[in-house]
Each structure stands twice: as structure tokens, then as C-alpha cells.
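Record type: monomer structure entry
Structure origin: computed from sequence
Chain ID: A
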Amino acid sequence: MLASRWVLPVYLCLLLGGLAGCHYYEEFRMMKGTADIRSETADLIRAYRECMERYEKEPAKAREYCSGYSQTLREIQPAAMGAAGRDSGKEKP
């Protein structure tokens, strides 16, 4: 009789404690996603700079060969800016 009296409170404590972890996991996923976007952006910028340096003396080739990097950066930039806005807790004006 006494044991059954404690089962429900113990179960509820375990359940509520587990739900708190869900919030932290979601926060971790958001931070991980933001870090991944920033890392990929940095890699693209590095590759773009190397491409521009390689074709520095040939602007036509630089436009042709390096345009893929700049286009990709333009495409992922809104995602990176949105993630940065969520991280800071402030909305962008």
C-alpha cells in the first residue's frame, strides 16, 4: 500500500525531469546548426578568395570560375543571418 502511494509522484518527477532535457536538446540542435552554417560560410569564403587569387590576372576567368562560390554564399547568407538573429535573442531591424 505504501509503495503504490509513492509510485505516481516518483513517476511524475522522472517524467518532468526528462522533459526539461528536451528543451536543452533543441537548444543544442539550434546552436549546432548555426555553427555548421557559419563553418560552411567560412569555408566558402576561403575557397572564393583562393579562386580569386588564382585568377587575379585574368578577370574573365575569375568571373567564370569563381561565380559559383559567390552565388552559393548569397544563397546561404539569409540562413546564416537568420540563425545569428536567433542566437542573440534580438530581432534584426
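Annotation 1: Helices lie at 2-54, 59-88.
Annotation 2: The chain has two helices and no strands.
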